[in-house]
Hints:
single chain; alpha+beta; two-stranded antiparallel ribbon; 5 helices; 40% helix; 20% strand
Amino acid sequence: xxxxxxxxxxxxxxxxxxxxxxxxxxxxxxxxxxxxxxxxxxxxxxxxxxxxxxxxxxxxxxxxxxxxxxxxxxxxxxxxxxxxxxxxxxxxxxxxxxxxxxxxxxxxxxxxxxxxxxxxxxxxxxxxxxxxxxxxxxxxxxxxxxxxxxxxxxxxxxxxxxxxxxxxxxxxxxxxxxxxxxxxxxxxxxxxxxxxxxxxxxxxxxxxxxxxxxxx
Length: 216
């Protein structure tokens, strides 16, 4: 005589199988969520949420926190009289931007140059400067207090050196790129030196990872 398992026993077995499957799915999902790309400067799982700020763009319009929301933003802090690192970095950002266009990934990405020398960098000056590299680029300035409303919360250091007899002066500033997500959170600080291919590949990895987290 063959012993058949009771209904009660079958119910327990099925429940255990379902429980084990659920644990497996949950564990796999948690591992996926908690495994960001190994990129130097990526701020995960604690990205910094940006707070309200107010600056003026190259067209004389107010640029605030709301202008960062809904887009991926590359921020670089410098000044238009910079002799080396600023033009080099903006050239690299132009190349990254163009490469994104060839992959149909340019939409929803903005390149932003923030002046840490607002006394000299008027809106007109910023317009001519950023347009030289790319017509789509944004330039932010305003009063020193307005600039600090953004640099202060990101911890961006800058220092104005003593002016020469002609009135010219250099400004010491960060050479890093700051990547802000569409949720207006600082996701990564990419240190210099920058190379087009590396900036692009890091961005695409970060973007893919963050998009998946948002979907979950």
